[in-house]
Design goal:
Distance between the termini: 30 Å
Low-confidence stretches: 1-49, 199-213
Helix content: 25-40%
C-alpha cells in the first residue's frame, strides 16, 4: 500500500536549502525549468518537442495516463498479449508517483509510505501482484517505526503487536491501553477474512457485491465459520466504514479515537468514517502482527515507476510521453480512439481506458453520448482538497544520526486530522537510500496531505507577486521542520 491520493490541484514548492539553520533566511532557487531538456526518473533525457508515438498510430487498447493505475493496467494487458499504447501528458511517467532530479538531489513527488512489496500470493499487496506478473521486483529497505509529534508529546512509534502499548501508557494512560487491546482483540481475528478478500476487489461501491460476494464467497464464508461467534460480527462489518467497528466496541478514549483517524488518514486520506473496515483491518494485520515491517524502495518511488515501465515494454507495450489527449473519439456509442492536442488521431481497435480522474475523463467525452445520471453523479462527487509540497535538499552535518525516514506532525486533535494546515507529513528517504542525495546531504519531502483549500488559489497567476506571497505564507506550516532536526 502507499500513502497516495489524487488531488484536484497541487502546489509544488521546490527549494534547495544548505541546512536547517538557514530556514529563516531561505533563498529559493529554480527547481525545474519549464523549457529545455528534462531528466526522467531513470536518467534518460526527454526532449521538449512534438510527441512521437512509438510504432504505429493505433493499438488494441489505448490507456490515457501513466499513473500507477495506468501503468499496471497497460502492463497486465501487454503481459496477456494485447497491443497496448499508454499516452502521458507529462514529460515523465508515474503520475503523482513520479520522481525528479535537481542538482544531484532526487525527489519523490508523492507516495512515501509503502509496505507489502515483498509479499506474494492471492492476498499480497495488489502492486506486488502486478510486479510479480510482469516478472519485475523492487529492492527495498526495511524499517519499523516513524516519529510522531502530537499535542501529547513526541515519540518514536513502532509497528508490531506490543510496542505501541508503551507509548499509550506514557502519553495517553491505562484506559487507552485497555481500549487499544480491545480493538486489536476484535479486529485481528478478522484479518483472515479481510485477506480472503483480496485488496484488488475491495471497492466502496455496489460493484463489490459482484466482485467480492460472488467470486470470493466460499473463502469468506470459510473464514467467518472458523471464527465462530465473531464471524457474524465480521460478516456485517467488513464492508462497512471502520468507524462503525470503533463505535460498536464503545471505544471512547480521545487518544485512541484520534489515533485511529490518523491511521485511516495516512492510509487513504480520509478519517475512519470514510474507509472500509476491510481495508483498515488488512492494514492492521500488516502493521501490528509479529515481525512486521515497512518498506522503502531503493532509489525512491521512481524505482516503482521504472519497474512498471520495464514490465510494460518487456511485453511489447508502448509508452508515449508529452502526448496530451484532447478528446476521446466515439462512434456508434463506442470509443474508437483518441485525438491528441496536436491533432493526431490514435485508433483503439478494442478499447480506450482512462487513468485520468473521473472529472477529467468526463471532459474528454462527447457530452451527447453520456447519460445525464452519469454526468450528474460525477459532477456531484466531491473532490479532495489540494496538496502543498515542500522539497528540500540540506546538509547532513549536525543532524542527528538516527533521524529516521518519516515524521508525522499533528498540531491540534480538536480540529481533526483532515483540517487544513493541521497535519504535516515529512519524509527524509535519503536516510535509507543514500543515492537520493549527494554525499553529506539529505533530501526531504514535506506536504499537507489533501487538506490545502483550492479556493484561495483559484485564478491566481503563478507568476504574480500575490501567488508568491501566498505560497510563502501557506508553506510556513512546513517550517516546523526544525523540530525533527534536533
Amino acid at each position: 500500500m502507499a500513502l497516495s491520493m489524487t488531488p484536484n490541484f497541487t502546489h509544488h514548492y521546490h527549494s534547495l536549502f544548505p541546512s536547517f539553520k538557514s530556514l529563516n533566511n531561505r533563498k529559493t532557487v529554480v527547481a525545474r525549468s519549464s523549457n529545455g531538456n528534462v531528466p526522467s526518473s531513470n536518467g534518460t533525457v526527454l526532449l521538449k518537442d512534438k510527441p512521437t508515438i512509438p510504432g504505429k498510430s493505433e493499438a488494441d487498447v489505448v490507456v490515457i495516463g501513466s499513473g500507477i493505475g495506468g501503468l499496471c493496467c497497460g502492463g497486465l494487458l501487454a503481459r496477456y498479449e494485447q497491443d497496448v499504447l499508454v499516452l502521458e501528458s507529462h514529460d515523465q511517467p508515474g503520475g503523482a508517483a513520479h520522481s525528479f532530479e535537481i542538482k544531484g538531489y532526487k525527489f519523490d513527488s508523492g507516495p512515501s509510505l509503502f509496505s507489502g512489496f515483498q509479499s506474494r500470493g492471492p492476498q499480497a499487496n495488489p502492486l506486488a501482484q502486478v510486479l510479480d506478473a510482469l516478472g519485475e521486483s523492487i529492492p527495498c529497505v526495511n524499517y519499523d517505526s516513524w516519529m510522531v509529534y502530537v499535542p501529547e508529546g513526541e515519540f518514536l512509534s513502532r509497528i508490531g503487536p506490543t510496542e505501541f502499548y508503551k507509548d499509550l501508557e506514557t502519553y495517553a494512560g491505562p484506559n487507552a491501553v485497555q481500549e487499544w487491546k480491545k480493538l486489536l482483540d476484535a479486529i485481528l481475528p478478522l484479518s483472515s477474512a479481510a485477506m480472503a478478500l483480496p485488496p484488488l476487489s475491495i471497492r466502496g461501491d455496489l460493484g463489490v457485491i459482484s466482485t467480492a460476494a460472488a467470486r470470493y464467497a466460499p473463502s469468506l464464508l470459510k473464514s467467518f465459520a472458523q471464527m465462530g461467534p465473531q464471524g457474524a460480527f465480521g460478516a456485517t462489518k467488513l464492508l462497512r466504514p471502520f468507524s462503525e467497528i470503533v463505535d460498536s466496541l464503545e471505544l471512547k478514549d480521545p487518544f485512541i479515537r484520534n489515533w485511529v483517524d490518523l491511521l485511516a488518514f495516512l492510509l487513504a486520506g480520509v478519517k475512519s468514517n470514510g474507509i472500509l473496515s476491510a481495508e483498515m483491518i488488512y492494514m492492521f494485520a500488516e502493521w501490528y502482527k509479529p515481525d512486521c515491517s515497512l518498506e522503502y524502495p531503493l532509489h525512491g518511488s521512481g524505482a516503482v515507476v521504472d519497474a512498471l515501465v520495464r514490465g510494460l515494454q518487456k511485453f511489447g507495450g508502448r509508452l508515449s510521453l508529452r502526448s496530451h489527449v484532447e478528446k476521446i473519439v466515439v462512434e456508434n456509442n463506442r470509443a474508437i480512439g483518441v485525438e491528441l492536442k496536436n491533432g493526431q488521431f490514435i485508433r483503439a481497435k478494442k478499447a480506450v481506458i482512462s487513468n485520468a480522474s473521473m472529472w477529467d475523463t468526463l471532459n474528454l467525452l462527447p457530452r451527447e453520448v453520456l447519460p445525464n445520471s452519469y454526468v450528474d453523479r460525477i459532477n456531484t462527487t466531491p473532490q479532495c482538497e489540494s496538496f502543498m509540497h515542500l522539497h528540500l535538499g540540506f546538509d547532513a552535518e549536525g543532524i542527528q544520526k538516527d533521524l529516521g525516514i518519516h515524521h508525522i506532525v499533528v498540531n491540534d486533535w480538536d480540529r481533526g486530522v483532515d483540517a487544513d494546515q493541521n497535519v504535516v507529513l515529512i519524509s527524509v528517504p535519503s536516510v535509507l537510500s543514500s543515492d537520493l542525495a549527494p554525499p553529506g546531504k539529505h533530501v526531504l519531502h514535506a506536504y499537507t496531505p489533501g487538506t490545502e483549500p483550492f479556493e484561495i488559489w483559484k485564478g491566481l497567476d503563478r507568476r504574480s507577486d500575490e501567488y508568491k506571497r501566498l505560497k510563502g505564507e501557506r508553506s510556513e506550516v512546513s517550517m516546523t521542520l526544525n523540530r525533527i532536526s534536533r
